[in-house]
């Protein structure tokens, strides 16, 4: 039997890359470093690809570190990678950039439509204050919010999905087969969601189904199958009408 969106009672979401345009936010936040270096040869593609690799390694090495500290270390490592000089002030400015990362234009409207049909749950790799700042751009009250700060590790660690399933059962009395995990990142979300036994909706904002534009996420060589694919949150919301 073909699965339908209405088979589920809750959507568990990634936020950054799915609702918040973190790639534009990251690239904008890198400009102070690039400007100070005088370099004119670092492209957005190079910056984001380097960020993806460095951030993934940093989160794996220091799973208990709060996300702003992760970003500070990543920024210094980006400077080292491109052989340019950073400073504590530039590292801290990058670390504090999450509240300035923009929402995708469709996110707030789409979430309000989805809220009419589902419980909405966040499973995010940032800290609580960082997500609270982003939440003010999203226009809905989420039914549960679980962050890396709460869990003590970063996706794609399976512990994050174990935490999600345990707490969503406790907080909302929902079982795994009632949850549709909805995310952009194959690396951070869809691969571990397969292991967690969750159904999956891919918000393929980078059109990876037809390209190799991995942006700020680590490349996944063996792409997992998904139950649904949409190019935006709004396309997903409109599929319910």
Task: Compile the SSE list and pairings.
Layout: E1 10-13, H1 22-37, H2 44-61, H3 67-81, H4 88-95, H5 107-115, E2 119-124, H6 128-135, E3 144-147, H7 148-151, H8 158-172, E4 179-183, H9 186-195, E5 199-203, E6 228-230, H10 233-238
Parallel strand pairs: 1-2, 1-4, 2-3, 4-5, 5-6
Question: Could you describe the 3D structure shown?
Answer:
The protein is of the alpha/beta class. It has two domains: 5-21 and 102-238, Rossmann fold (3-Layer(aba) Sandwich); 22-100, DNA polymerase, domain 1. It has helices at residues 22-37, 44-61, 67-81, 88-95, 107-115, 128-135, 148-151, 158-172, 186-195, 233-238; strands spanning 10-13, 119-124, 144-147, 179-183, 199-203, 228-230. Helix 9 links the parallel strand 4 and strand 5. Helix 3 (67-81) packs across helix 4. It starts with 9 loop residues before the first strand and ends with a helix.
Under the CATH scheme, which class of the largest domain? Answer: Alpha Beta
Q: Given the helix and strand composition, which structural class is it?
A: alpha/beta
Largest sheet, if any? 6 strands, parallel
Uncertain regions spanning at least 5 consecutive residues: none
Q: Within the CATH hierarchy, at the fold level, what is the topology of the largest domain? A: Rossmann fold
- The sequence of SSEs as H and E is EHHHHHEHEHHEHEEH
Strand content: 5-15%
Q: What is the domain tally?
A: 2
